Structure formats: structure tokens, C-alpha cells
UniProtKB/TrEMBL annotation:
Protein name stated in the entry: Coiled-coil domain-containing protein 93
Domain CCDC93 coiled-coil: 9-363
Keywords: Coiled coil
Coiled coil, from the record: 75-208
GO biological process: Golgi to plasma membrane transport
């Protein structure tokens, strides 16, 4: 019985002093040891009772009651110890769960803070240096105004407390004295006017501070709405890509329309040719039966050949016009390419001049 009791005492001592974590196996072994101890006590008591009954059938009632009382006391003590141990186990489990939950909350807060820091770093990278300087100047001005407002509040608060103290003293003096002195009344009136003046000044300063804060927030929103140079470059690149895509699509559509018109003209000419050949095939035997029919047939053929030649001449003229347009467009393209090269060169020289100017300005500063 001494060894389980020592284990229980040692466990309770460690729990109180170190607040360490208790393994489940140790707790179960301790509970089992207490149950085994109770079982041994009960069995020993039963064996003793049986032996006493065998030796003496009727023992004295006082000894039996004493033994029974002792046994009940031992059982109640062991039960209390077990209950205490179970309560400690439950409390330890609850503390362990609370610590684990608090650790998880701290971890989540740490991860959230890291995410916010990364977002802030990404936002500060995309902010223009001039806008950042303006925002920093506004923030510094806001902090200065806030500090001045705190100092004014402290001053006004001290003045208010002094005035209230003077007012309370004057009121006490007025209440204590039955005769009211006109000088005291005048002084009290001046103090009240001064107090009202200080209160009005404090209210005006608060309104001015609120107005300044609204202006700062409005300027900050306008600064946020202004796109940075990186964003402008991205917009410009996106517009160039869209323009190139639309130009390619327009060129392909124009080529498809031209090809369709060409194929349509070819189909029309082939239909006319087939119709002409059918007409010649059908009218040729009848036309050569007489000299007049033969002459009419040849005249019709000559007229058809003439119309074909005229159409050919028109098509050749149209081809020459298109070729001249193409040559003019080639010349314009070459001129535009030269202008683009000249523009790139001028832009490069301008950027170099800007860098030299900035370096010279920094050296002068």
C-alpha cells in the first residue's frame, strides 16, 4: 500500500511544481494500482472475517463495529484519493487542450502576420517613389498634428482641472459665507468665461484635426488611384498586344475576303466559258448550214472575243493600280520604319541625358 501512495504523491507533486504533461499509460497504471489496493483490502477483510467467524461463531459486537468502521474509513479515503487523482487528470487534460489551442491560435496569428507583411512588401514595391515620399510627408504631418493635439489636450486638461478646482473652492467659499462679495462674483465669472473659451478652443482644434485627417485620407485615396509607372507600362504593353492582334486579324480577314472575291470571279468566268462552249456546240451545226448563218455566227464570236479582251484590259488596269498601291504602301512602310528607328535613337539619347542629369543633381546635393 505504501508504494502506490508514494507514486500518487510524487505524481501530484510533479503536476503542481512542473505542470508537466502526464502520459495516459501512467495515469491508467496508477488508477489500476488503486483499484488493486482496494481489492486487496476487501479480500483481506473478508478473509479475516471468515477466520473470525470460524474461530468464534459469535464475536463481540463492538470489535465488529470497530473493524467495519475502520474498513469504511479506509475505503472512503481511497475513494477520495481516486476522485482527487481523476480531477487532477481532468484538469491537466483541460490545461493541455487549452495550451494546444492557444499554440494553434498563436501559430495562425503568426502566419497571418507573415502574409500581411508579404502583402505590404508587394504593395510598397509597386508604389512610385514620388508618391511614397508624398505619403510619408503626409504621415509625418499627421503624426506631428496628432502629437500637438495630444499636448494641447494635456494642457487643456490641466487647465480644466485647475479651473474646476478653483471653481469648487469658490463655490465652497460662497456656500460657507452668508454675504456674497461682488469681487468674488466677478472673479468667478471671469473664470467661467476663461473655462468656456478654453473649451471652445479645444473643440475648434478637434474639428481642425478631423478636417486635416479627412484631407490626408482623401489625398491618400487619390494617390492610390493614380497608376504607377509599372502599371502604365503594363497597360501600354497590353494595348500594343491588342493592337497587334487586331491588325493581324484584320489582315487575315482582308486576305480571306480578297481570296473569296477572286474565287467568285473565277467561278463566274468559268460559268461564262462553259455557257459559251455550250452555245457554240449547240449552234455550230445550224450556223454552218448556210452562208448567212455562218457569217452571223462568226460575228457573234468576234463580239465575244472583243468583250473578253476589254474585260482583260480592265483587269490588267486594276492589277496595275493595285501594284501601284502596294508600291506606295511599301514606301510608307520604309519611311515609318526609319521614323521608328529615329524615335528609338532619340528616346535612348533622352534617357541617357536624364540619367546624367540625375547623377549630376545627386552629386550637387
Amino acid at each position: 500500500n505504501e508504494k502506490p501512495q508514494q507514486d500518487v504523491n510524487a505524481l501530484i507533486k510533479n503536476m503542481v511544481q512542473e505542470k508537466s504533461k502526464i502520459p495516459t499509460q501512467v495515469v491508467q497504471s496508477l488508477v489500476n494500482q488503486q483499484q488493486d489496493t482496494l481489492r486487496e483490502i476487501i479480500e483481506g477483510f473478508e478473509e479475516k472475517e471468515k477466520a473470525r467467524l470460524e474461530e468464534t461463531l459469535l464475536s463481540e459486537s463492538g470489535q465488529q463495529q470497530l473493524a467495519l468502521r475502520t474498513f469504511k474509513i479506509q475505503i472512503s479515503k481511497q475513494t477520495e484519493k481516486i476522485n482527487t487523482l481523476q480531477n487532477l487528470i481532468e484538469q491537466t487534460k483541460i490545461k493541455k487542450e487549452e495550451k494546444r489551442n492557444s499554440a494553434l491560435e498563436i501559430k495562425q496569428q503568426y502566419e497571418q502576420v507573415n502574409v500581411e507583411l508579404e502583402e505590404i512588401e508587394m504593395q510598397t514595391k509597386n508604389i512610385d517613389s514620388e508618391s511614397l515620399k508624398r505619403v510619408e510627408a503626409l504621415v509625418a504631418e499627421y503624426e506631428t498634428i496628432k502629437k500637438q493635439e495630444q499636448e494641447r489636450r494635456a494642457t487643456y486638461k490641466s487647465q480644466k482641472s485647475e479651473l474646476e478646482q478653483e471653481i469648487s473652492q469658490l463655490e465652497a467659499r460662497l456656500q460657507s459665507s452668508s454675504d456674497i462679495d461682488p469681487e468674488e462674483q466677478e472673479k468667478m465669472k471671469q473664470i467661467e468665461e476663461q473655462y468656456q473659451l478654453v473649451s471652445d478652443r479645444l473643440q475648434n482644434q478637434r474639428l481642425a484635426l478631423a478636417k486635416k485627417i479627412r484631407e490626408i485620407s482623401s489625398i491618400s485615396r487619390r494617390i492610390d488611384d493614380i497608376p504607377t509607372t509599372i502599371e502604365l507600362a503594363q497597360y501600354r504593353q497590353a494595348f500594343f498586344q491588342l493592337y497587334n492582334q487586331s491588325a493581324v486579324l484584320y489582315r487575315q480577314t482582308k486576305q480571306n475576303y480578297s481570296l473569296y472575291n477572286t474565287f467568285t470571279d473565277m467561278i463566274d468566268y468559268m460559268k461564262k466559258e462553259i455557257t459559251l462552249l455550250d452555245s457554240i456546240y449547240q449552234n455550230y451545226p445550224q450556223a454552218f448550214q448556210s452562208q448567212t448563218g455562218k457569217e452571223n455566227f462568226l460575228k457573234q464570236l468576234e463580239n465575244i472575243v472583243g468583250s473578253v479582251k476589254q474585260n482583260r484590259i480592265k483587269i490588267e488596269q486594276r492589277q496595275q493600280e493595285e501594284q501601284s498601291k502596294r508600291d506606295g504602301l511599301h514606301i510608307q512602310l520604309a519611311q515609318l520604319v526609319d521614323k521608328a528607328r529615329h524615335y528609338a535613337k532619340v528616346l535612348k539619347d533622352f534617357q541617357e541625358a536624364i540619367r546624367e542629369n540625375e547623377s549630376l543633381t545627386s552629386k550637387l546635393d
